[in-house]
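Q: Okay, next protein. This is Polyketide synthase from Amycolatopsis keratiniphila. I've checked the sequence twice, so it should be correct. Can you predict the 3D structure?
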Amino acid sequence: MTAYEPIAIVGIGARFPGASGAQELWDLVCGEVDAVTAEPPADRCDARPLYDPTPRKAGRVVSLDGGFLDHTTGFVPGDYAVTERENATLDPQHRLLLQCARDALADAALTETAGQDIGVFMGQSTGEHWDRLHGNTTTDMYAIATAAARSMASGRISYAWDLRGPCATVDAACSSGTLAVHLACQSLRTGECDIALAGGVSLVLDTHHTVGYSAAGMLSPSGRCRFGHEDADGFVRSDGAGVLVLKRLSRAQADGDTIHALILGSAQASKGRTAKAIIAPSLEGYLHVITRACAVADVSPDRIAYVEAHGNAAPAGDRTELHAIGAAIGVHRPTGRPCLVGSIKTNIGHPEAAGGIAGLIKAALAVRNRTVPASLHSDQPTSQVDWTGLGIAPVPRTIDWPDSESAIAGVSTYGLSGTFVHILVGQPPHQ
């Protein structure tokens, strides 16, 4: 397979629990901060009447913990070509994406965008705002265009800045944001657009999904994502949004851009029927997509020193992912230099459709700074995985990049619809 020109990340907008920008997110992970809390913002549905510590109890939630954002401040409708009437029912997820897009464009120093072939690819999976609103408002085109239609997650960004490139909202569950990035990279490489915005968003606005995850035993009773831990017991839901500005490397260099990191290659694939259930990941699926990403990037697996894992702390899912990372990457690493594996979900919870974007931003900043941030809850690695034999290791403390060569990291995501995405991120060229 022919390797493609790298894609440069030239702008980042990020809003995650405990962090209102990329630098704050970097400080959070390097500072080993736990941003999960049992105190959601006042505007959220009150889940306390549903609390019951009994596992898998129908109609109840086993934990009240989560990672939350205050999404109610700082949005001026007119700044984004949103009318007051539209703003009355606008999905808060779309407000958050618009704000992140503005931050990313500013970070990329892009001020003249109107009429340009700039692509927009956004990931959104849930529509809890519309779930709450439906039945309590008139269902007209305003309601459809502001709340019901997830396509507007990308459409509003293109409209706000008069962008004329491709525009699409994608839903691949927890792989939504990374799939959006993968599709944006493809669009850039084919020349369909010269600049692309790609990202994802998720806000926990209702309790229905939480109740369902709790009844299925997927929600963490301990209220933390303990990825790869002996006592891992599921995930906690959280808010988040991230948007990247992307260009082909040659274009970014010609424009004199500051480059945060490079996307060396990416791949997506479905597991098909290689798992026992449609929502379960499979070893074959992970191996297939990691191998394909390495081929696209023309990167030998032994060069990958760190993988930012999907890592949502479902014990069986963690074991599968860790085995795959070990088999595809770890066993090829030099003796005594295992592939390090961590997850930002240990810091901020699981932002679902934006979870992969959070991990990608962390990985991009890690290769840029040649630093591997600690992954929380790494004190007791699961005994169900042969870490040494697989050539992998947890990251219990923040350390310098373990290799002397140019830093390369993998970003792994899996969505319950069966979609895997793997992205390889490289250190930016000397600037």
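A: Here is a summary of the prediction. The chain has two domains: 7-254, 263-426. The chain has 14 helices and 13 strands.
Q: Noted. On to the next one.
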